[in-house]
Amino acid sequence: MTLRRLWPHGGAIAHYRALLAVRPQSAQGHYDLASVLAAHARAAEAIGHYGEALRLRPEWPAALDGLAASYAATGRWDEAVATAEHAVHAATAAGDAGTAAAIRERLDGYRVRRSAP
Fold first, then answer.
1. Domains in the chain: how many in total?
2. Which domain covers residue 71, as residue numbers?
3. What span, in angstroms and rounded, lies between the C-alpha atoms of 93 and 1?
4. Is residue 75 classed exposed, middle or buried when 0-12, 13-18 and 19+ CB atoms within 10 A define those classes?
5. In the chain, N or C terminus with fewer CB closer than 10 Å?
6. What's the Cα-to-Cα distance from 89 to each of 58, 59, 114, rounded to whole Å?
């Protein structure tokens, strides 16, 4: 069964947890688990796994972007803005202008929400 088929039922979460039990130093595994958790409205849990992915693979634009989105989903707007700014810089440094532009759009939204009463 593919992870895509497991995803809606939470099976992907169990899969990635099992993977990380065997390969705890897998940055990709932590990133994938965080992404699935975030997709299941479990952003608070996702934050730790995005953080671990970044500890293992610093300056990873996708992980920084996911972390920023998870901060935003939990109402942590200052952290969302700071992390998204970092993600824009990381994507730009990696030569990925398209990713930087997409993150910049989300960053604008975080800034608006942060300044809302």
1. 1
2. 3-115
3. 38
4. exposed
5. C
6. 12, 9, 20
